Amino acid sequence: MAFAERFVAQALLVLMAALLQLCHAAVYKVGDAAGWTTIGNIDYKQWAATKTFQVGDIILFEYNAQFHNVMRVTHPMYKACNVSAPLATYTTGNDSINITTTGHHYFFCGVPGHCQAGQKVDINVLRTSETAPTPAPSGLIPPSVPLVGVPAPSPSNAISLKPLKWSFSKLGLAMAAFAVFVSGFIKKF
User: Fold this and answer.
1) What is the number of other CB atoms lying within 10 angstroms of the CB of residue 171?
2) At what angle do helices 165-188 and 2-23 cross, to 10 degrees?
3) Contact 121, 48 (CB under 8 A)
4) Which of 36, 39, 136, 179 is least enclosed, having the fewest CB within 10 Å?
5) What is the model's pTM?
6) What are the start-end ranges of the E strands in 52-156?
């Protein structure tokens, strides 16, 4: 029965780790209210520059699937708007892409002319240490002067899941109690 107890404990540990990751995730709708479109001259480069993306965030592309799509591409393909061999193509009109790694993630619309018209975005996910403000050397910069080069918190339309943290904590506690109950139940058999 030790195998069953170990399996339950490991399963709960994996589930709690996944929930912890979810607590820190945000959902970013590309283009905010305008969405993924060529209408309205949306500056997706500027849109992305105002965000602080992290591993675990979800990038949401909402668009009219009759007129647009989303292609994930390499940097050279992004620069050239080359649609010949995308890493992935999304066509639902409501595509959620989970960011699982740091670095640049390049996307554009593969409909002819759309990328060239600016329907492309570079999602740059920095390592956690790169986004954390570093303390100023004491006495050199007064506290009222903002540090240059340190990204400010993004007042974006991202949906933060952090308010759910307390709920997930309760869920984790409930799962731990359940694990204790199950392990006691298994020992009886």
Assistant:
1) 14
2) 180
3) yes
4) 39
5) 0.60
6) 58-62, 70-73, 88-90, 94-98, 103-108, 120-125
